[in-house]
Design brief:
The complex is a heterodimer of chains A (320) and B (703).
Chain A: H1 2-5, H2 12-25, E1 29-30, H3 45-48, E2 57-66, E3 82-91, H4 97-107, E4 117-121, E5 124-126, E6 131-140, E7 143-154, E8 157-169, H5 170-178, E9 187-190, E10 197-199, H6 200-218, H7 221-245, H8 253-258, H9 261-280, H10 286-319
Parallel strand pairs in A: 1-2
Antiparallel strand pairs in A: 2-3, 3-8, 4-6, 5-6, 6-7, 7-8, 9-10
Chain B: E1 2-10, H1 15-35, H2 40-44, E2 54-60, E3 63-71, E4 78-86, H3 87-90, E5 91-92, E6 95-96, H4 98-107, E7 115-119, E8 122-131, H5 136-149, E9 157-158, E10 166-167, E11 171-178, E12 181-182, E13 186-187, E14 190-191, E15 195-196, E16 208-209, H6 216-222, H7 229-244, E17 251-252, H8 256-263, E18 270-275, H9 285-296, E19 298-302, E20 308-316, H10 322-351, H11 355-358, E21 366-368, E22 372-373, H12 374-392, H13 398-407, H14 415-419, H15 426-434, H16 439-446, H17 462-481, H18 495-508, H19 515-522, H20 526-547, H21 552-560, H22 566-579, H23 583-602, H24 621-641, H25 645-653, H26 656-665, H27 673-690
Antiparallel strand pairs in B: 1-3, 1-11, 2-3, 4-8, 5-6, 7-8, 9-10, 11-12, 13-14, 15-16, 17-19, 18-20, 19-20, 21-22
Helix pairs in contact in B: 1-5, 7-8, 9-10, 12-13, 12-17, 13-16, 13-17, 15-16, 16-17, 17-18, 17-20, 18-20, 18-22, 19-20, 20-21, 21-22, 22-25, 23-25, 23-27, 24-25, 24-26, 24-27
The chains are: A alpha+beta (320), B alpha+beta (703).
């Protein structure tokens, strides 16, 4: 107990600032969280779509990630309906990227010589996005604090260059640094004048309570199915339209550039979140599950293909 | 001669892949040097002491290395006599033709230096060509990259733009020294030098230079890397012992697989003892151990009575002092506490809905889309189990078995199984016990997935064995019925493992059920049953070979005589293996082959079970064989019925003098049809009689 209490650990928000500053100083564009429900930072277009195609990018953002089935009404000290991932995308990954990552741990106050750090194999896969990569879970004194992935495929397409993805589990790291057993006891902010502390629970407990109740008890299953159908139909319509619009044969370069692939992607994300809600609600039998997942995969992989094609056609047009 | 050192520096390689990769790199480098004639000195001096040719290999999560002593620094020249065109063609009127010139060019000599040789076909041009040996450095720089690129990885990746190569993880550096000289081997965008890296944290982080191949391991140890796997394993075991001593009378639970895993996760291992609140010991030990071992890679600790103690051991990849040990211990204890808390929450939460009430919930859990839910599967398994129980009779507690079958899958609806899927069945058994279900049913539920692998045991009770057989048979029959049987390396539903489980249970428990009864009971129709028969025959063969270590030919021989009764086929295989080395048995086996050939060539089939038609006169070889066979046949039947196959086979082997004499003195294919048929009948009866044990013609006899 004594060892970590000596110097005050970073608050939750300081932790976020520090990591974002760290990566900004290493050339990352800082993006705001994506303003749509996603199950993981990977699903934000800043990762899922930007890793496609040849254009290099370094970007970082803190993404609230919603997993309705993981909600526990705020009663479980280690599980959340919505948690925060700090997502860093490095395309292409620089040499010795692991060392860079370890420096970021030093930046948030972790003395590497006083901890046990291991990179243990953990390969990431998101079948619905036709995406996978190889990498590690980074273990710090027995706690998984980061997921480190070299993306290999996305939207069913091989990536070249590949991207390195670093996903920090912010609550876990804060719990670790502050040495608290419950997520809700994490100090989110500390008033610089009074020293008064605002905890994670103080900021978010009511959200966990209400959203758990919504996704487990209140969400209207029929309406959710209807939402899913509507989002899917509109997304499919756009994908179908893309076949004629997003093409080298299309002389209207502006129409190609303005084709709303991003809009189609948001509709696909809506479907994914609606599916997760239905799943948490216990409304999807295992039989249906496979079928609905295939439908959503069809949307997401379809969007990725259009996005890649659009990028290619626009780039070719710009050169001409 | 010089020593060769080659090291590949990598980002952390998955622990499960390191051992085989290290061995493969070592093999590839040695093969390369052999192939390129760079170990000739060493090989010719192979009996020198100490041996001139030594190989060591090393690995950690961040490197693979091989060190070979006694490598020739230069290939010997190859001097070759090459024959060229005929002199007649090579010279026209004493002048060299283009043919002679081309040959000289090809052989690397001047036309004037060409010789003539006389062969039986006439005079030909010849040249002595000298293929200059290359230096070892040249050869290694040119050839080693291909070997590195060919190493097998279960999963690999691209990392460089343009995707020039795939490897398990990005290559960070290469070291290649021949003696003290660098060999500039290139792979993955890196060219070898002499610089390597020490431990990620304990070393300075700066590269340092390896002075010579021999100093490699020592220099790395100075930078906190124990590069020798066995040294690391040894250090871990000692450190586990040492740390456990803090608790009086305690022992750490031996776990070879886990020792192996942590050996491949560390460069500079140490061990720390941690504790958890004793109140968690109220949770089932299976859950606690799974959390510790599978989720946290901790070793469990037990007290002097073998009971789980509230401690754990974690293997670190760093050395500690008092301060850091306290921090790391505390961190690990917190993680474990959170995990145990979760488990306890699930354990208590799940108990609110007893298994009996969960039967209905199984309707919502799909087993397979065309085979329905786990509720319907459970009903089918109940039916099968009841049918098997009825066959066996009163030694089975049919009511307990039925209850077990009904509840067996209900733990799939519990949170604890969703969290720890590897504990399905076990958790069901534990819940059943906590909910007052009969002990027999609880044990059967608990054991339903046993054996999980061929190294595993078998269910403790006949009810557990029957439940396991019924469940697996239902799965296999269902999938086969849908045409979803395994093909080649594809077995997505692990049906082979399921069938292996059935075979193992039948072989190693006293269950008096034959495979065919299981197949017929489970299969929906004859076609499915037929496919299953072939499938199970292969599984029996697999079991005999891989688990019982029986030779390929013995397996073929005994399975040819039937594999329906698994325990019986095991007994026959063991008996054949036992006697196969004996001279008499070998001779009889060879004679068997001959008999079968004669019968096949004659197109003869036994008309039915009749007495041997009297053919030859008494006293001759035919009569002798006939009489002896009559005696032995009866004996073999008697012994076989008691599964005394070894004695039966030994009895068959005593036929050797009569068989030898028969083939020496008697011509089977006598022109007289009656005589011939009599003799063929005798042979056919011998073959038929003994073929109940094995088809001896399958036995490979030397020579």
């Amino acid at each position: 107990m004594q060892a970590t209490k000596e110097k005050k650990a970073l608050t939750f928000q300081e932790l976020l600032f520090t990591l974002q500053k760290f990566w900004a100083e290493r050339g990352c564009v800082l993006q705001q969280p994506y303003d749509l429900e996603v199950g993981a930072g990977t699903m934000s277009p800043d990762t899922f779509l930007r890793v496609l195609g040849p254009k290099p990018i370094k970007i970082a953002y803190a993404q609230p990630s919603r997993r309705p089935a993981d909600g526990r009404y705020g009663e479980n000290p280690n599980r959340l309906f919505r948690h925060t991932q700090l997502q860093v995308i490095l395309k292409p990954p620089p040499e010795r990227v692991q060392e860079l990552y370890l420096e970021s741990l030093v930046a948030i106050g972790i003395d590497l010589r006083e901890h046990d750090i291991k990179f243990e194999e953990d390969n990431w896969e998101w079948p619905v996005g036709g995406a996978w990569g190889v990498g590690w879970q980074v273990m710090l004194d027995g706690q998984e604090i980061t997921q480190f992935t070299y993306f290999q495929q996305c939207g069913g397409m091989d990536l070249d260059p590949i991207s390195g993805e670093i996903t920090y589990g912010m609550e876990r790291i804060a719990q670790f640094l502050q040495d608290v057993d419950s997520i809700y006891d994490i100090v989110w902010a500390r008033d610089p004048d009074t020293g008064a502390e605002m905890t994670y629970g103080g900021v978010r407990l009511h959200e966990e309570q209400q959203f758990s109740a919504y996704s487990f008890d209140y969400a209207d299953v029929e309406k959710l199915w209807e939402h899913l159908r509507l989002y899917e139909a509109e997304c499919l319509a756009l994908l179908s339209l893309a076949k004629t619009v997003v093409s080298e044969e299309n002389a209207d370069a502006l129409a190609v550039k303005r084709f709303p692939t991003m809009g189609a992607y948001e509709l696909a994300l809506k479907c994914s979140h609606t599916f997760n809600l239905l799943d948490a609600r216990g409304a999807i039998s295992v039989t249906e599950r496979v079928g609905v997942m295939a439908r959503i995969r069809n949307l997401i992989v379809g969007v990725a293909k259009v996005y890649a094609e659009q990028g290619r056609v626009v780039a070719a047009g710009a050169g001409a | 001669m010089a020593d060769l050192l080659f090291e590949i520096g990598l980002e952390e390689v998955p622990a499960r892949m390191i051992e085989s990769a290290e061995a493969e790199l070592r093999r590839r480098v040695v093969d390369l040097l052999m192939r390129e004639r760079l170990l000739e000195n060493a090989v010719t001096n192979a009996f020198s002491m100490p041996p001139a040719f030594t190989v060591r290999s090393f690995s950690t999560p961040r490197r693979l290395a091989v060190l070979i002593g006694g490598v020739d620094t230069q290939q010997k020249d190859i001097v070759e006599e090459v024959t060229g065109p005929a002199v007649k063609i090579a010279y026209k009127d004493g002048v060299a033709t283009p043919a002679a010139e081309a040959f000289a060019r090809k052989s690397g000599v001047a036309v004037a230096d060409l010789k003539t040789v006389t062969t039986p076909k006439g005079e030909y041009l010849a040249a002595t060509s000298v293929k200059a040996g290359r230096t070892a450095a040249e050869v290694i720089a040119a050839e080693l990259p291909k070997e590195v690129g060919a190493i097998y990885w279960a999963k690999n990746m691209y990392w460089r733009a343009g995707k020039p190569e795939r490897f398990v993880r990005p290559v960070l550096w290469l070291v290649c020294l021949l003696g003290e000289e660098v060999v500039p081997v290139s792979f993955g965008g890196k060219t070898a030098g002499r610089a390597t890296f020490g431990h990620r944290v304990l070393s300075s982080g700066e590269p340092f230079e390896i002075e010579s191949p021999e100093s490699y391991a020592v220099q790395l140890e100075g930078e906190y890397v124990l590069v020798d796997v066995e040294a690391r394993r040894h250090k871990i075991r000692k450190a586990l012992d040492h740390a456990t001593r803090e608790v009086a009378g305690a022992r750490w639970r031996e776990d070879e697989a886990l020792v192996d895993q942590v050996t491949h996760l560390t460069e500079w291992p140490d061990v720390l003892l941690g504790s958890f609140e004793p109140e968690y010991l109220a949770l089932p030990e299976e859950v606690l151990v799974t959390v510790m071992r599978d989720h946290q890679k901790y070793f469990a600790v037990e007290d002097a009575d073998g009971k789980l103690a509230p401690h754990f051991l974690t293997v670190l990849n760093i050395s500690t002092d008092e301060n850091s040990a306290a921090i790391i211990r505390q961190g690990n204890e917190r993680v474990l506490r959170a995990r145990f808390n979760d488990a306890r929450f699930f354990w208590e939460f799940d108990q609110r809905v007893p298994l009996v009430e969960r039967v209905k919930l199984l309707e919502n859990v799909t087993f397979q889309k065309d085979l329905g839910s786990y509720a319907t599967k459970s009903e089918r398994v109940r039916g099968l189990a009841a049918a098997f129980a009825e066959r066996i009779g009163e030694t089975v507690d049919a009511a307990a078995l039925d209850e077990a079958a009904r509840l067996a899958k209900t733990d799939l609806t519990t949170e604890l199984v969703k969290e720890f899927t590897e504990l399905q069945g076990i958790i069901g058994g534990l819940y059943a016990k906590a909910q007052g279900i009969s002990q027999i049913a609880c044990d059967a539920i608990y054991d339903q997935y046993t054996p999980a692998s061929m190294d595993d045991g078998v269910p403790r009770s006949v009810e557990g064995a029957l439940l396991g057989v019924a469940d697996r048979a239902d799965t296999i029959a269902g999938m086969f019925g849908l045409g979803m049987e395994p093909t080649g390396s594809k077995d997505p539903f692990a049906l082979r493992r399921a069938a292996n489980g059935i075979v193992k249970i039948l072989a190693e428990t006293g269950l008096p059920i034959k495979l065919d009864r299981i197949i017929v009971a489970a299969a929906k129709d004859g076609a499915t049953a037929d496919k299953m028969r072939g499938f199970f025959r292969e599984r029996v063969e697999f079991y005999l070979r891989e688990v019982r270590g029986q030779a390929y030919d013995v397996v073929k021989a005994v399975v040819a005589a039937g594999s329906d009764d698994v325990r019986d086929v095991v007994a026959r295989a063991e008996a054949v293996t036992h006697v196969r080395g004996g001279d008499d048995f070998r001779a009889v086996s060879a004679a068997f082959k001959r008999m079968k050939n004669i019968l096949v060539q004659a197109g003869f089939e036994l008309p039915g079970l009749g007495a041997v038609a009297g053919g030859g006169a008494e006293g001759d070889a035919e009569g002798a064989l006939m009489r002896k066979f009559g005696v032995i046949d009866a004996k073999v039947r008697e012994l076989s019925s008691q599964r005394a196959y070894r004695s039966a086979l030994e009895a068959i082997a005593t036929l050797r003098p009569e068989i030898d004499a028969f083939f020496d003195q008697v011509m089977v294919m006598d022109p007289d049809l009656t005589v011939r048929n009599g003799r063929l009948t005798l042979l056919a009866m011998i073959v038929a009689s003994f073929s109940g044990i094995a088809d001896f013609s399958e036995i490979v006899t030397a020579g």
